[in-house]
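Aim 2 progress update. The chain analyzed this quarter is reproduced below.
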Amino acid sequence: MGFSATVRHNLRHYADFRGRAQRAQFWWWYLFLIVMQVVLNAVDGALGLQVGETDLKVGDTAIPVVSDGVGVLSTVFGLAVVLPTLAVAVRRLHDTDRSGWWIVAPLAAYVLTGVLVAVLAAFDAPGFAFAIVGVGFVAGAILALVVLVFFIQKGTAGTNTHGPDPLGQGA
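Predicted structure tokens:
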């Protein structure tokens, strides 16, 4: 599946978390997201559609910092593609015969860390809370790398528990 076919397919299957997505479909989609964000950020900057834009002050000189604001068009686009991005990621995990719930593993580590830090703060244990933040960050990063490896891996040949092979291999 090529670039434009992938974009059309993922937009047609906007919130379809069933089935499988081959590696090319997943990576073409992410290329599309990066290209669109770069273009929309440039348009936001050119049209002055950045909210919260500030100038960097160096002495009496103000240096405009375009990247400091949040672009309206790029933000709207980012919000519009959250569901299809999650859907293609889940379908990619399905292609490797894994549960789509792996996508939330890194986030779960960070949320659990936040909860533990809040509890420890209530017991006035800042030193221990700091250690928990470090461990939680490392755990979340490791889980993110595990999920990335899953995305990179070749899908299972033939039919698996999530459907037929998108490449049509095996029977």
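The radius of gyration is 21 Å. The chain has a mean pLDDT of 87. These observations will guide the mutagenesis experiments scheduled for the next reporting period.
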